[in-house]
């Protein structure tokens, strides 16, 4: 895997470069935002490990520029912030996932596997629920006719909810579906990802589609009807 590590703290940069190289990855590094953007003009990567607190340009700025360029690499954001709104901000700007410092190396490897997992070729299936349309084959999402840009991780979460439409998807099932069955990632990471998806899929619209089942998990259904009604409304064209 080709990985660009963007980190200004020398010790962390050294640890990441050495650890990833020992696991067989091809690693390049940058120590600030402008250098990172210059490197990405000349090189293609599978993943960009992007620290938020960079000098020059912040990690948020770098993520935004990369997505505006349609840069195809997955972005895994590294942040010392443990505030949900800061993490959601990064996801909304185009990061595919995030890690809060300090983190374990096995957790980092699990996140890398998640954001680079091959997307299986989907049949030409379009799901409709209320005013939401999901085109699996082209990985496009619309609501009220408005296109909604989702990261790879957000789209995976949405697909998992669609597969159990009208039913509660347990937290552990969602975590394993997104980050892998051997993942030790906790519920907090899932909650942040769900809130990021909600900020795009629910917040700008009048009716909620993503619902919380306290102590259990999450479900996708319309507020207009119960889960059984929503199962019938979810049409495949």
TrEMBL record:
Domain OmpR/PhoB-type: 124-222
Annotated organism of origin: Acidisarcina polymorpha
Protein name in the entry: DNA-binding heavy metal response regulator
One Pfam family linked to the record: Trans_reg_C
Keyword Membrane carried by entry: no
Gene Ontology terms: biological process: regulation of DNA-templated transcription
Modified residues (4-aspartylphosphate): 51
Keyword vocabulary terms for this entry: DNA-binding, Phosphoprotein, Transcription, Transcription regulation, Two-component regulatory system
Origin organism lineage: Bacteria, Pseudomonadati, Acidobacteriota, Terriglobia, Terriglobales
């Amino acid at each position: 895997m080709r990985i660009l590590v963007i980190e200004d703290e020398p010790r962390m940069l050294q640890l990441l470069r050495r650890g990833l190289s020992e696991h067989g990855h091809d690693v390049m590094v940058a120590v600030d935002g402008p250098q990172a953007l210059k490197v990405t003009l000349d090189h293609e990567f599978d993943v960009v490990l992007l620290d938020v607190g960079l000098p020059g340009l912040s990690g948020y700025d770098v993520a935004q520029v990369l997505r505006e360029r349609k840069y195809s690499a997955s972005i895994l954001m590294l942040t010392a912030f443990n505030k949900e709104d800061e993490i959601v901000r990064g996801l909304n700007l185009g990061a595919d996932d995030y890690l809060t410092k300090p983190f374990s190396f096995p957790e980092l490897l699990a996140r890398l596997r998640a954001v680079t997992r091959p997307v299986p070729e989907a049949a030409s299936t379009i799901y409709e629920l209320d005013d939401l349309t999901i085109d699996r084959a082209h990985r496009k999402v619309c609501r009220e006719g408005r296109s909604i840009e989702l990261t790879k991780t957000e789209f995976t979460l949405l697909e998992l909810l669609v597969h159990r439409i009208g039913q509660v998807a347990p937290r552990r099932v969602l975590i394993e579906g997104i980050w892998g069955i051997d993942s030790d990632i906790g519920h907090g990471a899932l909650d942040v990802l769900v809130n990021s998806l909600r900020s795009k899929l629910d917040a700008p619209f009048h009716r909620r589609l993503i619902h919380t089942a306290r102590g259990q998990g999450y479900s996708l259904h319309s507020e207009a009807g119960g889960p059984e009604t929503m199962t019938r409304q979810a049409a495949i064209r």
